[in-house]
Amino acid sequence: MSLAGDVSRPGRQSLGRRCAADLFRRLTRHCTWAEKHLAGVPKARVDENGLEVVETGSHRRGILEELEKAHIYVEQLNGRLKEQESRITGQRELIEKLTERLAVVESGVSP
Question: What would the 3-class secondary structure string for 49-87 be?
Fold first, then answer.
């Protein structure tokens, strides 16, 4: 095994919320699932002796970037899920009220 590359990451800034949607689009577009490889994580290269060589610094940086993208996407999904749950609750309440009103109308009794 051969290790090469910078392990430190000076000046790294986390990704902001304003680009979260764009990140998801880029993540899904750049993931090469057929190769089971994320675009942000560099592939190992094979040296002249047939050994796989990974540059640890760029590899870790790529993993962190992909993890940040996935975290932002999960956060977006969680927000959408909460919105949908709220909508469903409202719709159930409305259905319950309408069902009660329909029962009253069908029974011929005025409210």
Answer: CCCEEEEHHHHHHHHHHHHHHHHHHHHHHHHHHHHHHHH
For residue 52, give the nearest of 100, 110, 4 by alpha carbon: 4
Quote the pTM value.
Answer: 0.53
Q: Is the pLDDT of residue 40 over 50?
A: yes
Burial 6-39 (b: 16+ CB within 10 A, else e): eeeeeeeeeeeeeebeebbeebeeebeeeeeebe
The 3-class SS string of 15-32 reads CCHHHHHHHHHHHHHHCE
